[in-house]
Amino acid sequence: MKVYLDNNATTMVDPEVTQAMIPYFSEMYGNPNSLHKFGTASHPAITKAINQMYKAIGANDKDDIVFTSCATESNNWVLQSVWIDKILNGDKNHIVTTEIEHPSVLSTCKFLEEQGVKVTYLPVNDQGIVEAHTVKAFITEKTALVSIMWANNETGMIFPIQEIGEICRDKGVLFHTDGVQAVGKIPVNMQEVHVDFMSMSAHKFHGPKGIGALYIKNSQKLTPLLHGGDQMGGRRSGTLNVPYIVGMGQALELATTNIEEKMATIRAKRDRLEDALLGSLSDVFTVGDRNNRTPNTILISIRGVEGEGMLWDLNNSLIGASTGSACASEDLEANSVMLAIGADNELAHTGIRLSLSRFTTDEEIDYVIERFQSAVKRLRAISSSYAIVQPTAGGAAGECHIHH
Q1: What distance in Å separates the CA atoms of residue 372 and residue 282, rounded to the nearest whole number?
Q2: CB atoms < 10 A from the CB of 75, how many?
Q3: Which domains occur in the chain, in start order?
Q4: pLDDT (tens digit, 9 = 90+) per residue, 38-68?
Q5: Residue 37's CB: how many other CB atoms inside 10 A?
Q6: Are 376 and 335 in contact (CB under 8 A)?
Q7: Which of 70, 109, 168, 327 is catalytic?
Q8: To the nearest whole number, what is the mean pLDDT of the chain?
Q9: Handedness of CA 373, 378, 383, 386 (dihedral sign)
Q10: Rounded to whole angstroms, how far apart are CA atoms 222 and 84?
Q11: Is the pTM here over 0.85, yes or no?
């Protein structure tokens, strides 16, 4: 059996999405900016995709949704444009973010620091989230932007976006959220939160790779990152990727239709997997209260078992998992998120992320439980530093516990 549990890195394309995209590769392939019928034939499909996106995230007709190549581009666009608009051409010089943002945010912030921008990297609490009062404490009159993810890619922990947005609104500071791990997994309604910009990525909710989007509240000014043509109202130049736009709209509609029901189904499988591992293995813990996590995510650490060794065993059993962010997966340093929440250096090398999707089956969960337990026992048996103890009953699932 092959089991894919790395859905926070990327997801399979939903077959319905593939079918929706195919005609725009081979039949209606004209450039949509052309005036002839080959080009205009795709206009209804683009309009439909945009409407699907608006409905799925609760945007209104005053807002913009601009398609990009990916969420990395969307994140870069916001951060670099705020730098141009509010710092180079304004009187601000400060950005607030967190220690555990996606590399596309952290690396851009490091670049902006080299240009003279002051960046505050907020710490997280022992649950792996930044609390709203911490954000408030670090906003100054020089703050141009707060950029904080909606949900963390490694832990699945959901941040208090509504509270942070209200603080930013009251302080007159722009607020950007990387919504990649939230959109399509949990309800996201832009009418219920004060968010100026939100980044999205299709391949995180069973759409194609190579297409993302940026939500812009009230169509406010944002200097383009790419210059050239007048596509997307002049906001983002480049020939529109029609098949992928169609795919993103279709994927988001499928992901968000009856989303509460989908969440409950995925959560039940996730909880069963988590309970089984915590209940059968000693010296393990999962990160964060699972009631405040995206319903598909587990970050589990096993004392005495290197994360890379665990991945090797799981891979040999044809189970796909991760030690954390796919964008940093070749880095064998300690997991930065685990260090940020206070785990010791040994445990920070043991984190394994298991992320489910709506296509994950009960049979796959059973298989993973069996193979995961076997791998831990094998790796601990050959460990030179871990003293084997009798398994103890696991703690309450969803809590950060180390069992001895």
Answers
A1: 13
A2: 31
A3: 3-9+259-381 (3.90.1150.10), 15-256 (3.40.640.10)
A4: 888 899 999 999 999 999 999 999 999 999 9
A5: 9
A6: no
A7: 327
A8: 90
A9: positive
A10: 9
A11: yes
